[in-house]
Amino acid sequence: MIEETLQETADRLKNFKGNVKGEVFRVHAEYIRQREGKEGVKRVEEKMKELGVSIVFDKVKSFEWIPEGKSSLTIIVAKEIFKWSDEDIFEMGKFAPKFSFIIKIIIQYLVSMESLLQNAEKHWGKHFDFGKIETEFFPQKNKAIVKEKDISPLHPLICIYHRGYYTGLCEFAVKEKNVNVTETKCKYNGDEYDEYLIEWN
């Protein structure tokens, strides 16, 4: 990927075709608030507005559709202004399923890694109106593969966020404590889609 300025990234993400549920923004804001306080949330809002992508987190409704470009830019902006590391973005993703009440509703009957992963494709649409995921489950090897398809590239940081998200989801949903998620294919490396290997024991 050609290196972009933050403004160039914002301008590109404005044109991303796809939406995400507002609950995702509520969770982003909560992570920022816990780490950087209320002023931190305000700083992100101000920087987003400066970039021409306005968002007021407290006014977002959990079930409304909001452009995914704004969601991705929130993560990118937070890393930029707070000087977070890639590990911080991984932890942001890991935090998300544990705080989202939509996820809590979805997983209350999914009591095994198998049921969680087999239902992942169906529940994708509860959060996104674009793309799709495909899963392969190998129970005897304690591993699974998740493929994210038909999604235009967003930003390399989003791959790190998703790796954290899948880790947190598996740990939270089925109480697996030894979960490892590796990105094995990435559009930014020239692959056709993003792919994550999930392993547990």
Content of β-strand: 15-25%
Strand order of the largest sheet: 3-4-6-5
Structural class: alpha+beta
CATH architecture term: Alpha-Beta Complex
Radius of gyration: 16 Å
Number of strands: 6
> Helix count, per DSSP?
8
CATH class category name: Alpha Beta
Assign the CATH topology.
Answer: H-NOX domain
Instruction: Give the N-terminus to C-terminus distance in angstroms.
Output: 35 Å
The CATH H-level superfamily is H-NOX domain
Fraction of residues in H or I helices: 40-55%
Q: Main β-sheet, in a few words?
A: 4 strands, antiparallel
Q: What best-fitting shape do the alpha-carbon axes yield?
A: globular
Instruction: Indicate how many domains the architecture comprises.
Output: 1
Mean pLDDT, to the nearest integer, reads: 90
N-to-C SSE string, H for helix and E for strand:
HEHEHHHHHEEHEE
